Amino acid sequence: MKVNQIKIKKDMKVSELIEEFDGSGVLGSGRVSRACNLLAKMIADEDTNVFMSLGGPLVPGGLRFVISDMIKNGQVNLIVSSGANITHDLLESFGGSHYRDVGGDDEELNSQGIGRIADVYTSSEDFEIFEKEITKIFEKIASEKKVVSIQELLYEVGLLIDDENSILANAARNNVPIFAPGLIDSMFGLQLWMFNQDHDFTVDAVKDMHYLSDIVFNSEKVGGILLGGGLTKHYTLASNLLKGGLDMAIQITMDRPETGSLSGAPLEEAKSWSKAKCGSDLATVIGDVTVIFPLILAGALDKLDSD
Prior knowledge:
It is an enzyme of class 2 (transferase). With 307 residues, the chain is α/β, with parallel strands linked by helices. Helices cover 44% and strands 17% of the residues.
């Protein structure tokens, strides 16, 4: 079978571009096409529960609305997030922002109260507001409950957020549970620890596993959207181990497999651990999530609209 040369035309739809990618072989464009087609299949299958993992600075990188809209539209059923993405989602809900085109030496940025995430910037003033607002929320929740799981805590926080674009708020209102096994490793976690110094309030991380395992066992099929690597990727994979693994999954990562790290491991490797089923449909794309995921999601939705 010959490789088709990609043709670009004026005013072409995203799905048409993906179709051009489809016949271009197994380099990057071909992988993008495969991931797009698999994502469309995942979203369209009513028997598949879609688990999404959020690793890396996806909210600072501009994907907050993308993720929130997928929750609103019923395209994702469960989220595993880093503590950082939760923190940055709340930062914006409390009136803060993420900034660009600031530049400057990092030591000078430090003196100005500016934190840098590659070429995205945050303000210490916004984090000061975050600290005050999240403490108020902790106080309200702790006045009603003394022991909660991480997922329950994030659900309760989401119910108290008045922001139609918030990931946490939309997840709570649409019954999409958010798990965050590394929550303590974030500004959210730091404030939670400080709050616990003088409050009788316990967060039980193990309690999450009861609820999560019930979701897995009650799912006819599970599909994974793995954005970035690390703990969130592994928690999503490992949560399905007791049922033989994911039925289908896509991952987008900048990491490579040669070091043996999980972040760069091809999804096929998960089959050896029963974290992805033998015969499962898998697609890995090496690249920047903030570029590739909006592209394949737009293509998948375009494809579904035309079917």
